Amino acid sequence: MNQKLKQPKYWFLCIFLASNLWLNAQDKAISLDYSNIKLNQVLDSLQEISGYHFFYNKNWFSERKNYSFKNTSLVNIMDSLVEGTIFNYYILDKEKRIFILKNDLIYDELPKSFYPTQKTEDSVLNNRIATIVTPLFYEPSYGGNENKPRPITVGKSLASDARAIYQVNGKALYQTTNEPIANLVIQNKTTANTLVSKDSGDFTLNMQYGLNELVFSAMGVKTTYQDVIVYNTGGFTVFLEESLEILDEVIVEADAKSNILDSNTGKEEFSTEETKEIPLVLGERNVLQIAKALPGITSAGEGSGGINVRGGKTDQNLILLDHTVIYNPSHFFGIFQALNPFITDKVAVYKADAPLKFGGRLSSVIDIKTKKNIPKEIGVEGSLGPVTANLALEIPIKKDTTALLIGGRGAYADYILANLDDENLKNSKASFYDGIIKLNHRFTDDSDLNITAYNSGDRFSVTKDSLFKYQNTAGSIVWNHKLNEKTIGQFNINHSRYNFDIGFNDEGNRNFDLAYGINETFLGYDLQKDLSKKLKVNYGLATKYYQVNPGRISPGDVNSDIQELQIQNEKALESGLYVGSELSVSDKLQVNLGARLTNFTALGERYQRVYEENQPKNEGTVVDTLNYSNLESIKSYFGPEARFSVRYLINPSFSLKGSLNNSYQYVHTLSSNTTVSPIDTWKLSDLHIKPQKSIQAVIGLYKNLKEDEFEISLETYYKWMDNVLDFKTGAELFLNQNVETEVLQGKGKAYGVEFMLKKNRGDLNGWLSYTYSRSLYSFSSEFDEETINNGDFFPSNFDKPHDVSLIANYRLTRRFSFSMNFSYQTGRPVTFPVGTYRFNNADFVVFSERNKFRIPDYYRLDLGFNVEGNHKKKKLAHSFITFQVYNVLGRNNPYSVFFVTEDGEVKALQSSIFGIPIPSITYNFKF
Q1: What is the annotated signal peptide range for this record (predicted)?
Q2: N or C end of the chain: smaller count of CB under 10 Å?
């Protein structure tokens, strides 16, 4: 009995000692210290030190890191090496082998739920975990001819984190350009869930543990079926091919339902590709001219720089290029845009309810974005036209990571001026250029940096003794990054400058040089957070520093009698703090609510006059002069802004929207011209000039027909404005030390109805827009010199009640197409002389009330014929040729009406820009 009892104890002791030997081998203290090496190199060293054999695929490891361990056990080292990675490991102690696994686990026992006879309540595992710990078996069926891509694996299996559903983040990019794919439909056939990717290409899916079959589809993207094996939370990037067969329709189909689902009112979006077939003057692509064909947007006249949006002045538009303000986005008297069309990607126009991060203007935000491509190879695109040559380069610097975009344009336009009707322009000379460089760098899928530098310049001579020059300079640094799974941040710093110079030189002694400049530096941080599927918040802050040189004149040479004069500089600080939310109350109802708090402070060093209260501001009412030191606060204005919009989905293709918002504007243009002039100056609010204010209410109906082939929208709006600027008759605005004595501030109102019908696809596509609108102003005071039209409301210079635009493209074949652009507008208001009188043997003209009459109505028809090169995929260059005739009907549309006295008689004369048909041919190429 004793021997039988001792023998089991002996064998138990042997087993215990053997186990200790294996444990001691794993617990052996190991020290390692490596810098900048791959993980497989660490595993090779561990193999030599520990005596264990490691099994892995060395192609899995590409990242280099630093590794340091001191007197650490093998198990603890392995735990540390795989922590935060997608790798697991499994140890076979007896064979002294260690297996490195990607995503998966090795299971050395069956789950208790494997036995169907076992009762659930007897299991220590609940039903959720019992399902998950079952090993995954996936047998790929990818032969050499299979089109289905290989499966994607996400996360790593952890027994301590066993769930039925995991949240997976994805990003969709174009395979050839690495550009994000917006509005991509992602369908999970396994769970029957569907969602749409964001503008950044990002999306978030709730996916089940194991195999999920996804389907990616969008217009212009090849439909792709992709298996995704989910082990845990994580992320992946999918690269999709463009669908060449439907490229012609991608432009209009990319956001097929955004007009219905988006809660913004008054928002219009288009890409530069949409402009390539639309006939415009001299064959130039021009996104700002295309914007004028949208409802609610017009301009004072043909060839005028600047646009008027919903009854607002041209200075009430915030025009941004990669987040940076462009003060004068036009070349050549407003005929051409100062933006390279081959670098420009998309344009968003907000006529109401602009995003919270934008502020400082009453009427609109025009957000122009350049391309963010990171191409795989060098790309060249450009055009040769009758006036300009354009060239754009896309240069990859580091594969899938860094790229450089370079765009340049120059003009050879003098001969065009010689053929214009205006006698003052026939003997003129003009040239212009613009250039842009952009660096795109992607740190990770969740972080990228975009640096843009832009410069444009115009140089023209209207008369032989004068030379005008004006220039835009801008630069921005934008860092987009994801802070966590729910929060995206954008840091933005930029600088913008606009300046002009006028040189006058004749044979007399009045030669002079005149200069003006405005600078602004902006710093902002914007955050977007998804609190839940139904609630998103947006918040941030921004500040802007202004420096203005209001004007300087100096003698042109030593013989000049001109006295040097420098108007005192202006400085100011404008800041904004905002927060907003987007709440999906239900599948049909979505509400946006936000607030923006703005503060503007005019700063010294400068002086400000003090005038008698309740008296007009003139030289006779000055009672004091206040002097302010450098950066001392002169006057502060606080402006609370509210943004509210709502969208109700009547059915999947029909929605009702409404919005109400107010805005403040602290900068103003000083100009007595009807349209934008290169020598317009900007003035900051101060002790006497108050900020402009507006409130706008909008309601609209939006309907899609025939599976989104047609879009119909109808919006009506009413806008109240206060402190809008105008000027006294005969005002001297430039080089005026006390310009407040020439400025009037009053009230304005604008209202209208906008209709748009758009056909998105088919051989015939384009849009028809009609706008009925009124824009009225009132300047009332107890003093006659500060009153216009007895204080009654009168039409603004850009009040045009009826505006019709029709843009159509008809495709004969895949290579040949016709295009048409028709525009009609009510003639703008003017002030006419209505009589004369004689006083002291001199004749004087009596004028009507301000803007009581109108010039003749404007209409124009442009036609184009477009020829694309063959569509062979492999060839040196792809070409596109446009033959266009601007103003086919030869309509002599009046640009302005002015009056002269000849032989004692007052005569009306009309000035036109293009009074004859203007043919052009443009060759576009892409390598």
Answers
A1: 1-25
A2: N
The owner of tokens 């005929």 is 335
- Structural domain range at position 147: 132-242
Cα(852)–Cα(796) distance, rounded to whole angstroms? 10
Q: Is there a single domain that holds both residue 772 and residue 886?
A: yes
Q: Are residues 599 and 713 in the same domain?
A: yes
Q: Look at residues 780, 690, 782 and name the one whose alpha carbon lies nearest to residue 740.
A: 690
774 and 860 housed in the same domain: yes
Q: Is pLDDT of 1 > 70?
A: no
Cβ 284 vs Cβ 334: under 8 Å = no
Q: Per the domain annotation, does 300 fall within a domain?
A: no
The answer to whether residues 420 and 541 belong to one domain is yes
Main-chain dihedrals φ then ψ at residue 451, nearest 5 degrees = -120, 125
Mutual orientation of helices 2-26 and 74-82 as an angle, nearest 10°?
50
- Quote the pLDDT of residue 116: 55
Q: Which residue has the higher pLDDT, 335 or 97?
A: 97
Statement to judge: residues 137 and 62 lie in one domain: no
671 and 563, same domain (yes or no): yes
Q: What is the DSSP letter of 294?
A: S
User: What is the pLDDT of the chain when averaged over all its residues?
Assistant: 83
Cis peptide before 707 (omega within 30 of 0): no
Query: Is residue 138 domain-shared with residue 10, that is, in the same domain?
Result: no
Which of 102, 122, 153 delimits the end of a domain? Answer: 102
Mean pLDDT over residues 177-199, rounded? 83
Q: How far is CA 124 from CA 112, 118, 165, 186, in A?
A: 8, 11, 21, 38
Sign of the alpha-carbon torsion through 336, 340, 345, 347: negative
CA–CA distance, 458 with 603 (Å, rounded to integer):
32
Q: What span, in angstroms and rounded, lies between the C-alpha atoms of 118 and 112?
A: 8
What does the pLDDT look like over 130-164, one tens digit per residue? 444 556 666 655 444 456 788 888 888 777 677 78
User: Of 242, 276, 311, which marks where a domain is finished?
Assistant: 242
CATH number at residue 41: 3.55.50.30
| Listed ranges 330-334, 345-349, 635-639, 702-706; the one with the highest mean pLDDT | 635-639
Tokens of 794: 């009168």
* Section 229-245 average pLDDT: 81
Q: Measure the CA–CA gap between 538 and 592, rounded to whole angstroms.
A: 10
User: DSSP 3-state assignment of 896?
Assistant: strand
Write out the H or E segment, with its range, that includes residue 522: strand 512-530
The answer to the question of residue 248 being in a domain is: no
557 shares a domain with 650? yes
Contact 652, 703 (CB under 8 A): no
Both tokens of 860, joined, read 């124009």
Tokens of 129: 């975990």
pTM for the structure as a whole: 0.74
In CATH, what number is assigned to the domain containing residue 233? 2.60.40.1120
Q: Which residue has the tokens 């107890």?
A: 782
Domain-embedded: residue 702: yes
Q: Where do we find the tokens 């994801």?
A: 482
Q: Give the model's confidence band at 905: pLDDT under 50 very low, under 70 low, under 90 confident, else very high.
A: low
**Which residue, 769, 788, 768, is CA-closest to 780?**
788
pLDDT at 255: 56
Which of 209-213, 429-433, 658-662, 852-856 reaches the highest mean pLDDT?
658-662
- Give all strands of the β-sheet with 97-102 in edge-to-edge order: 53-55, 97-102, 87-92
Residue 381 lies in a domain: no
Residue type, 245: E
Into how many domains does the chain fold?
3
Q: What CA–CA distance (Å, rounded) separates 826 from 104?
A: 71
